[in-house]
Amino acid sequence: MTKLDSCRKVIAERITGPIISVLSRTPLTPDIVTWLGFGITIAAGALIVTEHFLAAGIVVLVAGLFDMLDGALARTTGRTSRFGAILDSTLDRLSEALLLITLLAVFVKYGQTAESVLAAVALAGSLIVSYIRARMEGLGIECKAGLFTRPERVIILSLGLLFSGFDNALLIALAVITFFSWITVIERLVYAWYQTRS
After folding, report:
1. In this structure, which of 39, 54, 172, 174 has its CB flanked by the most CB atoms within 10 Å?
2. Which residues of 64-89 are buried (b: 16+ CB within 10 A; e: fewer)?
3. Spatial CB neighbours of 110, under 8 Å, sequence gap ≥ 6
4. Cα dihedral value 48, 54, 58, 64, nearest 10
5. pTM for the structure as a whole
6. Which parts of the chain have pLDDT scores under 50?
7. Rounded CA separation 21/173 (Å)
8. What distance lies between CA 134 and its chain's CA centroid?
9. Which option is the CATH number for 2-195: 3.90.226.10, 1.20.140.10, 1.10.10.10, 1.20.120.1760?
10. pLDDT tens, 6-20?
């Protein structure tokens, strides 16, 4: 898992590096970037509810980019803060919940039972993945274990929205998110068990 986390960091730095070099010379603070990302997610949710799935997929990717930018900007400019970390984590959870709830609303509207169940179970899984990490870090244990973290979930959801014109694309995306989120829950619980045995 250390190699996987390192790989995520390298990819994130490659993507955010050029943008951060520009943002660091502006008055924008990391907290403002966090709020901007959340605002973009709200726009994506509105697009999902109105069934503009292709546009929503693009906007979700943009929101995901902002999610990477706030932390990178804070580290680059030395403006990290405990409240900023809490705000970022809180809005991340709200953003993910918002997207899955708006999808759930569309599925319920059309009586799509399988999709509705998957959206609900995916939401529960994604929140528990994040909760386990937060709980462990609250106990002073670093937790970066897990195959399927927020970036992977955002990418798969975006792909499902982008290809929603094809049969079952959203259903497949939600199935992937659900399955791997719960696999990650198990991974993190096992990791937590190992870390807390002594």
Report:
1. 174
2. bbbbbbbbbbbebeeeeeeebeebbe
3. none
4. 40
5. 0.88
6. none
7. 34
8. 14
9. 1.20.120.1760
10. 676 777 777 777 888
